[in-house]
Design brief:
Helix content is about 55%, strand content about 15%. It is of the alpha+beta class and about 325 residues long.
Length: about 325
C-alpha cells in the first residue's frame, strides 16, 4: 500500500494524490507492482528496495554517490501475532525494520515498512509535534525519536508483565509462567541487539557525513541519543533481573522436587514396616497368644505400630520429616 502525505504551512498533514516536492511517500508491504513503481517512477535504487524489504536486515546506513540517495534502516519494536506463536496465551515481542529514503534531487522522503505500525500511523495522523515533510533531516530524526520512545513503552510493558508473572509463580508449579518469562527474556534479547545496531547507525548520522545535520537539529539528535541510551540501560537491567529470577525459580522448583521425593521416600520406608512384620508372622510360624481366644493379631499389630512410630520419630529428629 502506498500513501502520500504533505504538511501545509500550518503544519497539518494531509493526503496527496501524486508525489510532489516536499511530500512524504509511505509504503507498507509493497506488492511487486508497487516495488517497480518505486524503482521506475520515484527512482529508488533496486538494491535499496531489496534491503528495505528484507525482514532480517539490521540497522545500518548506506549512501550512493552516483544518484545522491541515502538509505537508513532502523528496527522498531512490535508484539508478535498470536497466530504466529505455538501458544497463543504467550506474549512475545520482536523487532522489524523500517527504512527511510532521502531523495534530495526530487525533494522527497520515502519510508518502507513490512507491516503497519503505530509509529508511521502517529506521524501520518499528525500526532507528532512540529512535523514537516519538507525538512527531510528533521523528519528522519523525529521518526527515530518516536522509535526510541516506543522501545521505552514496550520495555515498561515487559517489566509489568514479568512482575505479574512472577507473582503467579509464587503459588504455581506449572510451566506456563516459566515459558512466559522465557518469551520475555527472548524479547529483551531482540531489543538489546536492535538497540546496539541503532546506536551505531545514530553515531554515523551524528557525524554528518551522509545526512546533513543542521544547527537546529542538534538538540533533536541529542534527544534521540539519550532515549536510545536509556532504552539500552533499561533493557540490560530488565534482562539481568529476568535472568536472575528464572535461575532462582529453577532452583526453587528443583528444591521443591527434592523435598517431595524425600517425603515420598520416608513414607515408603515407614509403610514397608507393616509389610515386613505381617510378612514374618504370615509364614508357617506359631503366633503368640494363638490359643488366647483369637487375640493373636494384637502382638503383631502392637509391634507394627511401635515400629512405625519409632521410625517416624527418628526421621523427625533427623529433619527428614516435616
Amino acid at each position: 500500500m502506498i500513501t502520500c502525505y504533505k504538511t501545509d504551512l500550518n503544519g497539518i498533514t494531509s493526503l496527496v494524490e501524486t508525489p510532489e516536492p516536499g511530500a512524504w511517500i509511505n509504503v507498507v508491504a509493497p506488492t511487486d507492482e508497487e516495488r517497480r513503481w518505486l524503482e521506475d517512477e520515484i527512482g529508488v535504487l533496486p538494491e535499496f528496495v531489496r534491503s528495505a524489504l528484507d525482514e532480517e536486515e539490521t540497522s545500518h546506513i548506506d549512501y550512493d554517490d552516483d544518484v545522491n540517495q541515502a538509505l537508513i534502516i532502523v528496527d522498531y519494536p512490535c508484539a508478535e501475532d498470536a497466530e504466529d506463536m505455538q501458544d497463543p496465551t504467550m506474549l512475545q515481542y520482536t523487532t522489524l525494520p523500517i527504512s527511510f529514503f532521502s531523495l534530495p534531487e526530487k525533494s522527497l522522503v520515502v519510508t518502507v515498512s513490512l507491516d503497519e505500525n503505530a509509529i508511521v500511523a502517529d506521524m501520518a495522523a499528525g500526532r507528532v509535534r512540529g512535523l514537516n515533510t519538507r525538512l527531510r533531516t528533521r523528519f528522519l530524526l523525529q521518526m527515530l525519536l518516536r522509535i526510541s520512545q516506543s522501545y521505552l513503552v514496550h520495555l515498561r510493558r515487559i517489566d509489568n508483565l514479568s512482575t505479574a508473572t512472577e507473582q503467579r509463580l509464587y503459588g504455581s508449579m506449572r510451566n506456563e509462567e516459566l515459558l512466559q518469562m522465557l518469551s520475555l527474556e527472548k524479547s529483551l534479547v531482540y531489543f538489546s541487539t536492535s538497540l546496539k545496531s541503532a546506536e551505531v547507525t545514530l553515531n554515523k548520522i551524528q557525524h554528518g557525513h551522509i545526512i546533513t545535520l543542521y544547527e537546529e537539529d542538534q538538540d533533536l539528535m541529542e534527544d534521540v541519543m539519550i532515549e536510545v541510551h536509556q532504552a539500552q540501560e533499561m533493557c540490560n537491567i530488565y534482562s539481568n533481573i529476568l535472568s536472575g529470577t528464572m535461575d532462582a525459580y529453577a532452583s526453587v522448583i528443583s528444591n521443591n522436587l527434592n523435598i517431595v521425593m524425600k517425603v515420598l521416600t520416608v513414607i515408603t520406608i515407614v509403610m514397608a514396616i507393616p509389610n515386613m512384620v505381617f510378612g514374618f508372622f504370615g509364614m508357617n510360624v506359631t503366633l503368640p497368644l494363638a490359643g488366647a481366644g483369637g487375640d493373636s493379631w494384637i502382638l503383631p499389630t502392637v509391634i507394627t505400630v511401635v515400629a512405625c512410630v519409632g521410625a517416624a520419630y527418628v526421621f523427625k529428629r533427623k529433619g527428614l520429616w516435616r
